[in-house]
TrEMBL record:
NCBIfam families per record: GGDEF
Protein name: diguanylate cyclase
Catalytically driven reaction(s): 2 GTP = 3',3'-c-di-GMP + 2 diphosphate
Recorded superkingdom: Bacteria
Occurrences of domain GGDEF (ranges): 90-224
EC number annotated for this UniProt entry: 2.7.7.65
Species per Swiss-Prot/TrEMBL record: Massilia norwichensis
Length: 225
C-alpha cells in the first residue's frame, strides 16, 4: 500500500494562495496604473491638439495688428448674415469707418505710433459693439462693423457714439503721438441700400466718402446723400 504524503501542509497551501492573490492584485494595480497613465497621455495630446487647432483657427480669422476679424472672415460673415437677414426678414446694417488723416500720424510720429493708434481705435470698437456684431479690419486704416438685427437709424446712432468715443479718447496710452484722432463713418442697411454684399458695401462706402468730403469726423447714413 502506498502512503500518500502531502507535499505541502494545509497552512502552507493557504499561505501560497494568499501570496498568489496578493501578486494578482499587485499586477492588476500595475495594469490599472499603466492604463491611467496612457489615458492621461492621450487626453493631454488631444487637449494639446484642440488648443493648437483653436489657435490656428483664430490666427486664420484675426487681423494680427488689431485683433479684430480679418477681411476674409468679414466677407464670409457678410454673405452668411445677408442670407440670414433675407430668411428672417430682419434688418442688417453695415458701418464702414476710416481713420481721418492717418497718413499724417505715420508721417509725423512714425509707423509704430500709427500702429498703436490703430490698436487704440480697435479697442474702442470692441468696447462699443454688441456680442452679435462683427468688427473687422478691412484693410489699412479702414474698419467695418456688421450689425445684425439692427436698422440703419440705430446703427447710425451707435456709430455716432463710437465716433465721439474715438474723438474724445487719448489715441496713445502714454500720451506720445497726436493729441486727438478722428474717424469718418458711412452706414447702410440691407436690403434698402443694397440688395447684395457688393451693393451694400458700395452704399456704405459712398456715405463714408461723403463724410470725408464734408469735413471728416462725422457719420453719414446712406440715403442722406
Ligand atoms: N501705421 C500703419 N499705417 C498704415 C497701415 N495700413 C495703412 N497705413 C497708412 O494709412 C495711410 C492712409 O493714408 P490715406 O489713404 O492718404 O488716407 P488718410 O491720410 O487717412 O486721409 P483721409 O482718409 O482722406 O482722411 C497711409 O499712409 C498708409 O501707409 C498700417 O497697418 N499701419
Amino acid at each position: 500500500m502506498r502512503l500518500c504524503v502531502p507535499l505541502v501542509t494545509q497552512d502552507e497551501l493557504v499561505g501560497m494562495l494568499h501570496l498568489e492573490g496578493l501578486a494578482a492584485q499587485a499586477k492588476l494595480r500595475d495594469e490599472q496604473e499603466q492604463l491611467a497613465v496612457s489615458l492621461a497621455e492621450q487626453l493631454a495630446l488631444a487637449l494639446g491638439n484642440a488648443r493648437l487647432r483653436e489657435s490656428l483657427r483664430r490666427q486664420s480669422v484675426l487681423d494680427p495688428l488689431t485683433g479684430l476679424f480679418n477681411r476674409r472672415y468679414f466677407e464670409e460673415t457678410l454673405r452668411r448674415e445677408l442670407a440670414r437677414s433675407r430668411r428672417m426678414a430682419s434688418p442688417l446694417s453695415l458701418v464702414v469707418l476710416d481713420v481721418d488723416h492717418f497718413k499724417r500720424v505715420n508721417d509725423g510720429y512714425g509707423h509704430a505710433t500709427g500702429d498703436a493708434v490703430l490698436r487704440t481705435i480697435a479697442q474702442l470698437v470692441r468696447q462699443s459693439i454688441r456680442d452679435c456684431d462683427v468688427a473687422c479690419r478691412y484693410g489699412g486704416e479702414e474698419l467695418v462693423i456688421l450689425m445684425p438685427d439692427c436698422a440703419q437709424q440705430d446703427a447710425a446712432r451707435r456709430a455716432e457714439a463710437l465716433r465721439a468715443d474715438i474723438a474724445g479718447a487719448p489715441p496713445m496710452p502714454d500720451g506720445a503721438g497726436p493729441d486727438t484722432i478722428t474717424a469718418s463713418f458711412g452706414v447702410a442697411e440691407f436690403p434698402i441700400h443694397g440688395p447684395d454684399a457688393e451693393a451694400l458695401f458700395r452704399a456704405a462706402d459712398r456715405a463714408l466718402y461723403q463724410a470725408k468730403r464734408e469735413g471728416r469726423n462725422r457719420v453719414i447714413a446712406a440715403g442722406q446723400q
